[in-house]
Write a structure and sequence with these properties.
Elements lengths: L2 H16 L20 H6 L12 H6 L5 E9 L5 H10 L7 H14 L9 E4 L4 H7 L3 H13 L2 E2 L4 E3 L11 H8 L3 E3 L9 E9 L3 H10 L6 E9 L6
Parallel strand pairs: 1-7, 2-3, 2-6, 6-7
Antiparallel strand pairs: 4-5
Bound molecules: zinc ion.
The site of zinc ion has 8 residues, from helix 2.
């Protein structure tokens, strides 16, 4: 082992001993090899593996949009799971720092996917209405997008897609009511900025796909070259 590497490893172990880091889900003290979550919690996370499957349920949800070339989600979202807890803490307990491990993990999966272009021009996070943004203090999809953009060496565009209508919370609504609730909620401010571009459209949790479909309906008017629809978690019951 080279000296620098040895020094780093020993240094990390000493810091962990003096200031023990805890698993952000169960609170177990982490070893120097573990990051964010302990091994047991990490093993409980259910990966979809959709980034290695071009024809997956997420892609099928959006395949009717002409520009969508790929769709995928990183994890399955089950109630009372680490993933549900993580999303809850990020969104409602406003733990903005959790966007970093999520964005990194998502980035590593996307970078290895043969179905996602290597030269993505920009990532568009699903926007919040300015009122909700003010209440929460940040947009969780945008925070994840920033860390994802670092891994993929691309940019984040928070200007082009705007939420112009405040909508009621979608959970608890029927599919029909969701569609009515959110119709006309999004608009483009500068379509030229994404014309002919390779885009990732990013959201945190995918349930029925209503929100993302409305975003795509607006985005396709700008004629981008391609859109990959990507979410952190997928809460749909129908699985492969
Ligand atoms: Zn744990």
């Amino acid at each position: 082992m080279p000296w620098l590497q040895l020094f780093k490893t020993v240094g990390k172990a000493v810091i962990d001993f003096v200031f023990p880091r805890q698993c952000s889900y169960c609170g177990t003290v982490l070893t120097s090899q573990e990051e964010v979550w302990c091994t047991r919690c990490r093993l409980s996370i259910k990966y979809t593996n959709y980034f290695r499957m071009p024809l997956n349920p997420v892609y099928y949800m959006f395949s009717m949009f002409k520009d969508v070339i790929f769709g995928g989600a990183l994890w399955f979202y089950d109630r009372r799971s680490l993933v549900a807890n993580l999303i809850h803490e990020l969104k409602f307990l406003r733990r903005k720092e959790l966007a970093e491990p999520i964005g990194k993990e998502l980035g590593e999966e996307l970078a290895e996917s043969p179905y996602v272009p290597k030269d993505i021009d920009t990532i568009i996070p699903v926007p919040l209405h300015p009122k909700r943004l003010k209440w929460r203090g940040f947009n969780q999809a945008e925070e994840v997008a920033r860390h994802l953009a670092l891994v993929l060496n691309t940019t984040v565009n928070t200007q082009v897609l705007k939420r112009i209508q405040e909508t009621e919370a979608q959970s608890g609504k029927s599919l029909h009511d969701r569609w009515i609730n959110i119709s006309g909620a999004f608009a483009l401010t500068d379509p030229e900025s994404i014309r002919g571009k390779k885009i990732i459209l990013l959201d945190d949790v995918l349930t029925t796909g209503t929100t993302l479909s409305h975003c795509l309906r607006v985005i396709e008017q700008a004629n981008p070259e391609s859109v990959c629809v990507v979410t952190v978690a997928f809460a749909n019951k129908a699985r492969f």
